[in-house]
UniProtKB/TrEMBL annotation:
SUPFAM superfamilies named in the record: Galactose-binding domain-like, SGNH hydrolase
Cross-referenced InterPro entries: Galactose-bd-like_sf (IPR008979), RhgT-like (IPR037459), SGNH_hydro (IPR013830), SGNH_hydro_sf (IPR036514)
Region entry Disordered, spans: 125-144
Lineage: Bacteria, Pseudomonadati, Pseudomonadota, Alphaproteobacteria, Caulobacterales
Family of this protein: Belongs to the 'GDSL' lipolytic enzyme family.
Record keywords, A-Z: Hydrolase, Signal
Name the UniProt record assigns to this protein: Rhamnogalacturonan acetylesterase
Pfam families tied to this protein: Lipase_GDSL_2 (PF13472)
Residue span, SGNH hydrolase-type esterase domain: 178-341
Organism name: Caulobacter hibisci
Signal peptide (residue range): 1-22
Length: 416
């Protein structure tokens, strides 16, 4: 049967990072067949084959259907052959949305292609007697999660997650690094989500999205924990970095990481920008989205003070693109209104900072609009079906559909 490609690679202009990464992950294609009649040359995988480190692949234990392959860190192009009668949503690592609502007719076959970034906490060791660390200092919540382990994990979600085959091969593509806090990060459990978690779905497989954002982070802690070191160790000319800090940086009750909007906050932003520019990457600043706090007239109250304005000022001073997510989130929340806006937030709306799948998805679409408007070098990598989004006219929360992951938790989010 003829296969239909959902993403087209031909004709895309790749940035210089492509050549720089050639040979970084020298490895032949791995091919896995989940059907009862596996093809010659493909590794047969039974439905009950649990992950085994000795053979380097298998399904993860527990609820849901997640398949893992032992791989070194790098970028990996995944091709799925979707069977007929499928209704499939695909996530990778810690619930990164890669493809959604792939629906096929009874006898149809379709290929779905995406690129997944895999990483470990290890850092290139510093030279003898030089300062530095050898690994990222992870918080307890991160240890053992798919985002930091030694394998690539793909989760098949949806009412009919019918995948016949899966192949994995190295990909030499530019990276889109995400640096930020809990509102950006890959939240490991339903129902919480960060906008960075949703962003991969809107890109063609000509880039990889490498989210290093983590809950509770500030620009200072991101430095102290060697997270910036990790990102910079992998940055190449032609890469991109979306930088959103502010929710935690403004907390004066966190004295070790507090930075003032008028002085040190701007200085740290400039330092981050300088580090990426030094390596030939394109930095993009992002203002923090508002918290959900309305006044009596149904208008959002600014709880971030002068921090969003400081981001805009640094962007103008340095000639750096700025995505004004603060402004777009204000429009989005006010369009929903005080009664409906809680449906975009975690913990059933009790949380006024963190989002659920609906809210994170809408904010990711705001980021996409910002990329279109101000980062043409990155906009060329958006998927053909990325669509357009007006935050003043969002999809009603009750009309939004997102196939959930199996992993769930009611624990309070770090940094909340």
């Amino acid at each position: 049967m003829q296969l239909k490609r959902r993403s087209v690679l031909a004709g895309l202009i790749l940035a210089p990072a492509t050549a720089a990464r050639a040979g970084e992950a020298a490895m032949t294609t791995r091919k896995f067949d989940f059907t009862s009649k596996p093809l010659a040359g493909w590794t047969a995988v039974a439905a009950d084959r649990l992950y085994d480190a000795a053979i380097g692949h298998g399904f993860e234990p527990g609820e849901g259907r997640s398949f893992s392959v032992a791989l070194p860190e790098g970028d990996w192009r995944v091709t799925l052959e979707v069977e007929g009668g499928a209704d499939l949503t695909v996530k990778a690592e810690s619930r990164r949305l890669m493809a959604e609502q792939i629906r096929t007719k009874a006898k149809e076959r379709r290929e779905v292609v995406f690129v997944v970034n895999v990483r470990t906490a290890a850092l290139p060791p510093p030279p003898r007697n030089a300062p530095g660390g050898t690994e990222v200092i992870l918080n307890p919540r991160e240890k053992g999660t798919p985002n930091w382990d030694d394998r690539l994990t793909v989760e098949f979600c949806g009412p009919a997650p019918k995948v016949a085959r899966m192949s994995v091969e190295p990909a030499s593509v530019p990276r889109v690094f995400l640096l930020g806090d809990s509102t950006v990060t890959d939240q490991p459990f339903e129902p919480a989500a960060g906008w960075g978690q949703m962003l991969p779905r809107f890109f063609a497989p000509s880039v990889s999205v490498a989210s290093h954002a983590e809950s509770g982070e500030t620009m200072k802690s991101f430095l102290m924990e060697h997270r910036l070191d990790k990102v910079l160790s992998q940055t190449r000319a032609g890469d991109f970095a979306l930088i959103q800090f502010g929710h935690n940086d403004q907390k004066e009750n966190w004295p070790q990481t507090y930075v003032a909007a008028a002085t040190t906050y701007r200085d740290y932003l400039k330092a981050y920008v300088g580090e990426f520019r030094r390596r030939g990457a394109i930095p993009v600043l992002v203002t923090s989205m508002h918290r959900r706090r309305f006044d009596e007239a149904g208008k959002i109250i600014n709880t971030h003070g002068d921090y969003p304005a400081a981001v805009l000022a640094v962007g103008q001073e340095l000639g750096v693109p700025v995505i004004d997510l603060a402004a777009m989130s204000k429009v989005f929340y006010e369009a929903l209104g005080p009664a409906q806006a809680p449906k975009a937030f975690a913990d059933g709306g009790k949380d006024i900072t963190h989002h659920d799948n609906y809210g994170a998805y809408a904010l990711a679409r705001c980021i996409v609009e910002g990329i279109k408007a101000g980062v043409p070098e990155l906009a060329r990598h958006l998927s053909a079906d990325a669509g357009s989004f007006d935050p003043a006219k969002p999809t009603p929360p009750d009309a939004f559909v997102m196939a959930p992951s199996a992993a769930r938790s009611s624990a309070a989010l770090r940094g909340n």
